[in-house]
Amino acid sequence: MTEGPVFGLAAPQFVVADVESTAHYYCDVLGFEITDRFLDPPVHMIVTRGYVQIFLAQARGESSVSNRRLLDVGIDAYIRVWGVRALADEFRSRGATILEGPVIRVYEQEELVVEDCNGFVLVFGEDTPPN
Known about the structure:
Low-confidence stretches: none
Strand order of the largest sheet: 1-4-3-2
Distance between the termini: 32 Å
Mean pLDDT: 93
Largest sheet: 4 strands, mixed
Order of helices and strands: EHEEEHEHEEE
Strand content: 35-45%
Radius of gyration: 16 Å
Number of strands: 8
């Protein structure tokens, strides 16, 4: 084993117009839970599902925009999962906005593309078994 830095997990931060309602959307529709909140009313909240965390920050004025608005195929977060088809069923039952999928890509990922309540695009991807 080599010495040096060890990377953990990355957490995207979305700057939103209403951090509290966004956090509740992530809980109610995408199955996350609120694991941290800062100040009252909150200016920053963390939602967590499994090993994935998403940081939500209260905008001071204009909120940030999805990469999809800047690049036709842009995404804001790529989240690796196991059980993407079951996740798609869960999201459908909760009323999530599914833009695409699950679909198997040429790069051997089965992906589910979802848009959140602020227009941010999240892709949930799973390795496909080799043919």
